[in-house]
């Protein structure tokens, strides 16, 4: 016999260390159904729900729970753990119900809902502002919204008010109102949260299986499951998925490559992890991250989701690790890849060696050549000059005549010779070789293979990567599952997956609920991003429609200064202030476009005795120190409080980088810089401060 546990109860287990220690005893007794006297079960006087009880967890804490089945031996639904007096008070007003519209399990306080509704009833309707919800109360009730709230909600003229009105409702109802306020239709809501109460939903064992119930409740029916839950830290994403996240992650079969889009913080990585765990129960899976350090983070998170016998079938690697592994399986050690600076030097040398005509040479910057190599040579597996002369160059900006193409090909050859001459290589060259190996019927069996590939941060992979990943799995059901956010593209060139043999058309979804950040921070980050001109990996416009967050916080602060020194002074004071408010140092980050600001911040913070740690290519370390990172390194991270420093002209976009680009590629270069700023701003969970010196960055949104 098991127990039902609410997300709130699960979270309360973290209240203080002593509860966790006692909880196992408590739950074991409850589960044993033997003598419950030690639990001191009590029914509060005149409870709102006769099924409610409180029980002793230890001296200080009591559990609030419901006897939810009609059997003589009740099954318990654990709702919360509170201090003795608070537990009694809560138990008096809490009810357990099954929503009549969709059968979702609900634990909430009707008296609190009524009180909030009362405060709204007395407010006059603002006749000159449009209502946010274009629905009737009956329509809202029909999808499951509390009737009293529905009557008031339709009068409201701001999203903020709707959230305040809904604050005491079960979480899924709050979510529905917010979805409707941000553009969802009633049909969307029915499809996502269900629109029919299953006949047997009064049996909690049935109700708990509904995806909407699973946003807040879990049924644990073995000691193993209970123990795992108690031993792990509370991380809601592991257990309480949004119905949309769940339906995407746990769908049995996609008949080919599937693409998941969504803004920053919508849980794409969470879904990728769950999908990997789901697939690992069936076959071998590669979860591919953009870098080694992002892979290391995912590996830790994945291990907590995998059943023991699936663990050996799931592997998590950075994309360049994958490439390297394929090459090594056939060629042995491939030589040390050049670092970006060395690579740039070699490209310049190759231009010189290849005797490029004077009129062309200035356009052949290292970034142009590396981009051309990835977007044309690797993307189309071009192996000869003739093939390059015929290759498609759509989307490359600069036009090249036949004579110029011949010259560029000579540069590629000179570059390869130069790199090979001292036993070195580059990651781009390696990905070309890996794709070649995987396409060769004789070599293919020597290389690793997987049944399924799941890719995170897909927007930053280049064509060479995709060729390798495509060939790593046999085409067929559930072969590839890709996550991307076109607005976060900070590396490389735009590409269309269809051209690389990865056809996701008709098999893609988009997540719109931001779980990471406040609505205030989200609004700011959305103002930063350039909504026009961003395309997804299918080559279609990437929309942000309906992208929203469910929680509130302080407004982001933008502060300008006349000098670097003043800016640093402010950054230091801000960080010190957060530390004094007991924000953990490791949850604070200062992000900058370039090393100059990072060095200044580091000096300024160290001078006042604040410990800092730079996020390097291995990702955030464990030290409890304020993290400093470039915007590039901030990808895939998140922090409670973030300062984005140096948001000023010349730095954002970074002139030095843009000036190096041939004129036709500047627009794309500026878009990447804007995306970097968006990535940095969208790392903040609670507080976001952006600073600049002298002249503000053109990317800064106009104040509202
Ligand atoms: N169902 C959920 N319940 C609770 N928290 C969630 C849920 N889904 C996601 N989160 C949390 O929201 C945050 C963002 O999730 P995640 O990193 O998966 O988003 P993402 O779309 O990959 O973001 P980005 O593109 O910015 O890297 C994380 O802290 C994650 O744990």
TrEMBL record:
Q: Give the matching InterPro entries.
A: DNA_helicase_UvrD-like_C, DNA_helicase_UvrD/REP, P-loop_NTPase, UvrD-like_ATP-bd
Q: Which reactions is this enzyme annotated as catalysing?
A: Couples ATP hydrolysis with the unwinding of duplex DNA by translocating in the 3'-5' direction; ATP + H2O = ADP + phosphate + H(+)
Which domain of life does this protein belong to?
A: Bacteria
Q: Which UniProt keywords apply?
A: ATP-binding, Exonuclease, Helicase, Hydrolase, Isomerase, Nuclease, Nucleotide-binding
Q: Where is the UvrD-like helicase ATP-binding domain?
A: 241-525
What EC number(s) does its UniProt record assign? 5.6.2.4
| An annotated Gene Ontology molecular function | exonuclease activity
Q: What is this protein called?
A: DNA 3'-5' helicase
Which source organism?
Answer: Actinomycetospora rhizophila
